[in-house]
Amino acid sequence: MGLPGRLDFHSHLIPGVDDGAADAPQSLAALRAFAAQEVTTCITTPHFDGSLTRVPQALEARLAQLDAGWATLTAARAGVEGLPSMERGVELMLDIPDVDVSDPRLRLAGGPFVLCEFPAMLLPPNAELAVKQFVARGWIPIIAHPERYRNHEADLMTIGRCRVAGAYLQVNAGSLIGHYGPEARTTAVRLLTRGWVDYLSSDHHARGIPATADAIAWLGTRDAEEQAYQLTVSNPRRILAGERPIPVTPIERRAPTLPWWRRLFR
Predict the structure, then answer these.
(1) Residue 141 in contact with residue 117, Cβ under 8 Å?
(2) What is the pLDDT of residue 264?
(3) Cβ(101)–Cβ(141) under 8 Å?
(4) Lower CB density within 10 Å: C or N end of the chain?
(5) Domain range spanning residue 232?
(6) What is the Cα–Cα distance from 24 to 111, expressed in whole angstroms?
(7) What is the DSSP letter of 248?
(8) Domain CATH for 17
(9) Is the dihedral of CA 77, 230, 203, 68 positive or negative?
(10) Does residue 259 belong to any structural domain of this protein?
(11) How many domains does the chain have?
């Protein structure tokens, strides 16, 4: 039996509100897929533009849309046994530097943690300033899928400054098994070998199956079962308690395996 009690806090399961689940049956199918991978709690996180938080009428309209979708999902899953328990938050796009997350619906399970991302899959050169804004207000930012940003420096300097400023990092499970291409996979491994990854979540969009189990199996091939447990169980569950993650031991750095014919003639 695998690791029990996994918590996934990055998914798009509220029906009809973004590019995730289109309807309630698709949401339920995704929850069944999570249950099959021993995920017992989901915090689902629809896309949300941070700029809306500074336009009261637009903010209320978008939150009302999410509330209606959440009500539909809650009604659909009522009485269905064997599904993960559910909380909500958002995946907050930092399209302006000064985002207001005082509404608890914008934070993971209403606690102090905020799942956020930068526009266009590019880290701005002063990304840490947005992190400092959150920290100054008492919130704790978690940067979603940092491995997918296309402009990392060789020394990962910008994302490193974000960590120093107080952000935590959530890598997508699919990145470890190549779902987002070789560059994202390489960067994910680099972050893991530095011990900079705090959480592993699916970013599941209610299509196919979550990559969580395959990513955990990959970590097992690196003798990183303990890290897998921290990344998918103990650290994510600390979010519900409002507690910061425990640092994850770096996984072993390994040289790439050469093809047999290159080893032969080496």
Answers:
(1) no
(2) 56
(3) no
(4) N
(5) 6-248
(6) 26
(7) P
(8) 3.20.20.140
(9) positive
(10) no
(11) 1
Distance CA 205, CA 75 (A): 20
Kindly write down the DSSP assignment for every residue of 185-205, as one continuous string: HHHHHHHHHHT---EEE--B-
| Residue 240 burial by Cβ neighbours in a 10 Å radius (0-12, 13-18, 19+) | middle
Beta-sheet pairing, 91-93 with 39-44: unpaired
Taking each helix axis as running N to C, give the angle between helix 157-165 and helix 127-136, from 0 to 180 degrees, rounded to the nearest 10.
10
Asked if the structure places residue 153 within a domain, the reply is yes
Q: Which pTM does this prediction carry?
A: 0.94
pLDDT in tens, 49-101: 999 999 999 999 999 999 999 999 999 999 999 999 999 999 999 999 899 99
What lies within 8 Å, CB to CB, of 226 at 6+ separation is 249
> How far apart are alpha carbons 110 and 104 in whole angstroms?
4
Query: Which pLDDT tens digit goes with each residue over 157-172?
Result: 999 999 999 999 999 9
